[in-house]
Amino acid sequence: MAYKRYKMKKNPTFFDAAVLAVFILCLVFVAGYFLQRFIHSGTRNSIKGLKAPVQHEVDGGTVHMDKGGYDITITFKCSYDIDALVVHTKDYRGDSNMADAISPVDLGLAWGKVAELNETVDFNWDQASRRCYCEVNSQEDMYLVGGEDFLNQSFSNNHIIPAEENVKRDVQRIRRGDHVRLRGYLVNVDGVEKKSGQGGYYWYSSTTREDSGDGACEIIYVTNVDWID
Asked: Is 79 exposed, middle or buried (0-12, 13-18, 19+ CB in 10 A)?
């Protein structure tokens, strides 16, 4: 006698759906993490002889933008010309805040001894939350770059505001290890939230290479991007 076994199909429960959703979210997170690492991996590089950025004060000048639900005024503070090694990049996507709406990427840029020794010394570059971090592994490495003051004065975290769509496309092509020249302006940014009419949103650039910590980043309104062989 032949026997047939039947298994009743169980309807998925809320718990099953929740587990599946969490699993999918984890896959998306992991895939996004490795995609981000791949996009920003680039090549570790070093370049000798790069000079500090050049800037000159300008007499005002403004640009207005309507992005991310904000009326934004960008005020030019200094013309800015930086020839530098890209040591790290970080994307910031979306319109969740004024900064992300106008600045899609931060660039970690180096010159001087830091750019020259970037392959010799492991600076452990990283970027997160609109900050750039580096840490050498030994006091000897710190001596090579001239001490902590020289280290801080030879790299910067730069919030990039593209002046036009073609500039935005160029900026988003920049990778670690590139030798780039950026020209534009150091700027102050003020915003008013359109929905509420509330003002007081601001983002102001550093205008010196000698500072560190919060407020020490350069905000660059970029008009030109060039790759240098």
From this structure: middle
Of 73, 100, 76, 105, the C-alpha closest to 88 is 105
Instruction: Reply yes or no on whether the pLDDT at 150 is more than 80.
Output: yes
User: What's the CA gap between 43 and 175, in Å, rounded?
Assistant: 8
Dihedral of CA atoms 28, 43, 160, 112 in degrees, nearest 10, equals 150
Please state, in angstroms and rounded to a whole number, the distance separating the CA atoms of residues 167 and 190: 22
Beta strands in the chain (DSSP E): 54-57, 62-67, 70-91, 105-110, 126-128, 131-133, 155-162, 179-193, 201-204, 218-227
Query: 113-149, pLDDT tens digit by residue?
Result: 999 999 999 999 999 999 999 999 999 999 999 999 9
Q: Distances from the Cα of 33 to the Cαs of 39, 87, 99, 101, 132, in angstroms?
A: 10, 19, 22, 22, 18
Residue given tokens 């030109």 in the structure block? 224
Tokens of 78: 């200094």
Coil, strand, or helix at residue 72? Answer: strand
Distance, C-alpha 172 to centroid of its chain: 10
Residue 219 above 70 pLDDT?
Answer: yes
pTM: 0.82
Map tokens 């790290």 to a residue: 88
Rounded distance between C-alpha atoms, residue 168 and residue 104, angstroms: 8
